[in-house]
Amino acid sequence: MRKVKPLVLPFFCEGYDRDEAEKQVKLAAESLVDLGMEPEVAPMICDVAAAEAASKTYNPYNYDFCVIYTTTWSEPRLACVAARQFFGMPIVIWCLDEFTYQGRRTEMSAAPACAALRGCLQEMGVPCEFTVGLPLPQKAADKLIAIGNAAR
After folding, report:
1. Percent helix, strand and coil across the chain, each rounded to 5?
2. What is the DSSP string of 101-128?
3. Which of 18, 65, 86, 119 has the fewest Cβ atoms nearer than 10 Å?
C-alpha cells in the first residue's frame, strides 16, 4: 500500500527569524515522515506572489491532504490563495506554539495566525482540522494519521 502523501504549505512573515521558521518546517516534515507519510514541502510562502505561485504549482490530485503550516504571524488571505484548490479535500492547519529560542521560551505569533485562518476558512464553509505543537501531541498525531489514511 502506498504511503499517505500530504502537501505542506509553509507560511512566514518577513521580519521574523527565517532560519528558525525553516527549522520548524523541517521538523514538521520530519514528524510527518515519522508518522509513515511521504510529505512534499512547498517553498516558504510570505507574500501574494508566492501564494499565487503555490496555487498554480501543486495539483491537488497528487496529494491526499493539505497541511497549512504557519511558522509565524501570517495573513489568512495568503493561505486562502495558496490552498484554494485544496478546499474540496482535507485540510489541516498546524503551527508551533512556544519553543526555546536562544535559550528562552518564545513564540512567533503562529498560533494567533492559525486561529485567524481557521475562523476565516470556517466562515467560507471550508472544513479543516486545527493542531498546535511540535512535536505533535499523541492525540494530534493519531488525528493526522486517521485523516491521511481516510484521504488516501
Report:
1. 45, 20, 30
2. ETTEEE--SHHHHHHHHHHHHHHTT---
3. 119
